């Protein structure tokens, strides 16, 4: 990547409107259908630059409208090649948008379809975890814009259902997450398949040194657009920390949800098994919850997400991979059950709330073992998160979570007090007595072998048992 052009950091003027960018009336009509009039800062900065055909590195906080920042100018640029013909040959893939997760790909595809609904342009989405047949049919019918996850895209290329030879625009959305998920070899393969002359756009909330190294390999004289300090959290999100003992975190999450009357909240867990356990615990506490993570099928994940959006489910417990790119309108709160191992993930988690200028709350639980993770997060965001006391929270008494041997001790005491000396009359710490079969206590008695008879019924000579014949199965045949 040669010398980077001017970095744009100034916010958009409030008077700027989408119609000021020279967008097609069909696009403006679609935006009006969505109720959009004024662009967000990242959109106001990115749209004119992308329309000029420049490569772009766009850094903005999650939830600021990056998707429209690149999809609107792409649709505008491709309108020059739009065709109403039914022939697939008239609808080659001209724009490729790569995302790290299925959920994000699906949401970007929804946005692209909404913005291009009044144009002849076609778009489709391909991702793993679902049947390839419908995706193959859509690709073979011809589409100008493909939104895809890297792995499934390569599957279609290998099966020759997708041709990238006419692709003019490449977009990497959430590129940092794609590197975290180990997609770098796939990204390099995809880049090598594309025409050398193309426009490249890279958008993300965070830009690590690894991301900049990747950008070096394929961006040409990019314009860096940074509407907010890199790796920063939104000012309209209130961040607080509650110190809670590790074994009381499950109860603390349930208490926070009940106390605040939260009806729509995402809770983040670092592990898949942790997400499932927390979801089950909340269900037992009377909170409608569901977990989404990598072990869930795509159908299960999409069903849970849809139920969450509809309000059927109040709490969505998610891992970072499953939650990246989730766009929930007016999400009031996120809770970090676990502090993330990567400090950058904290920025993305917090970015799930406070979207499009709305206010939001980001609540994190931490214990003594999380000290290093917390230090890394505060160092990254250059902000000290407020430590508060979880007023009114009384953890479940340890006696209510005692192991079974302690419960046995209680029952034993109860039995003794009632004069019952049954199986609970022994000490709680005494080893359990195994039942012993009396047969094993008998003295050893050697068994006298009975005399064996030959085929004629005669016993062996001299009272000795007859010589046993070796089975033919074992290779021994009687001598004749």
Automatic annotation (TrEMBL):
<dbReference type="GO" id="GO:0003676">
    <property type="term" value="F:nucleic acid binding"/>
</dbReference>
<feature type="domain" description="Helicase C-terminal">
    <location>
        <begin position="236"/>
        <end position="396"/>
    </location>
</feature>
<keyword id="KW-0067">ATP-binding</keyword>
<dbReference type="Pfam" id="PF00270">
    <property type="entry name" value="DEAD"/>
</dbReference>
<keyword id="KW-0378">Hydrolase</keyword>
<feature type="compositionally biased region" description="Basic and acidic residues">
    <location>
        <begin position="398"/>
        <end position="410"/>
    </location>
</feature>
<dbReference type="InterPro" id="IPR014014">
    <property type="entry name" value="RNA_helicase_DEAD_Q_motif"/>
</dbReference>
<dbReference type="GO" id="GO:0016787">
    <property type="term" value="F:hydrolase activity"/>
</dbReference>
<feature type="short sequence motif" description="Q motif">
    <location>
        <begin position="16"/>
        <end position="44"/>
    </location>
</feature>
<dbReference type="InterPro" id="IPR000629">
    <property type="entry name" value="RNA-helicase_DEAD-box_CS"/>
</dbReference>
<keyword id="KW-0347">Helicase</keyword>
<feature type="region of interest" description="Disordered">
    <location>
        <begin position="395"/>
        <end position="480"/>
    </location>
</feature>
<keyword id="KW-0963">Cytoplasm</keyword>
<dbReference type="GO" id="GO:0009266">
    <property type="term" value="P:response to temperature stimulus"/>
</dbReference>
<dbReference type="Pfam" id="PF00271">
    <property type="entry name" value="Helicase_C"/>
</dbReference>
<dbReference type="InterPro" id="IPR050079">
    <property type="entry name" value="DEAD_box_RNA_helicase"/>
</dbReference>
<dbReference type="GO" id="GO:0005524">
    <property type="term" value="F:ATP binding"/>
</dbReference>
<dbReference type="GO" id="GO:0005829">
    <property type="term" value="C:cytosol"/>
</dbReference>
<dbReference type="GO" id="GO:0003724">
    <property type="term" value="F:RNA helicase activity"/>
</dbReference>
<dbReference type="InterPro" id="IPR011545">
    <property type="entry name" value="DEAD/DEAH_box_helicase_dom"/>
</dbReference>
<feature type="domain" description="Helicase ATP-binding">
    <location>
        <begin position="47"/>
        <end position="225"/>
    </location>
</feature>
<feature type="compositionally biased region" description="Low complexity">
    <location>
        <begin position="411"/>
        <end position="428"/>
    </location>
</feature>
<comment type="similarity">
    <text>Belongs to the DEAD box helicase family.</text>
</comment>
<dbReference type="InterPro" id="IPR027417">
    <property type="entry name" value="P-loop_NTPase"/>
</dbReference>
<dbReference type="InterPro" id="IPR001650">
    <property type="entry name" value="Helicase_C-like"/>
</dbReference>
<feature type="domain" description="DEAD-box RNA helicase Q">
    <location>
        <begin position="16"/>
        <end position="44"/>
    </location>
</feature>
<dbReference type="GO" id="GO:0042255">
    <property type="term" value="P:ribosome assembly"/>
</dbReference>
<dbReference type="InterPro" id="IPR014001">
    <property type="entry name" value="Helicase_ATP-bd"/>
</dbReference>
<dbReference type="InterPro" id="IPR044742">
    <property type="entry name" value="DEAD/DEAH_RhlB"/>
</dbReference>
<protein>
    <recommendedName>
        <fullName>DEAD-box ATP-dependent RNA helicase RhpA</fullName>
        <ecNumber>3.6.4.13</ecNumber>
    </recommendedName>
</protein>
<keyword id="KW-0547">Nucleotide-binding</keyword>
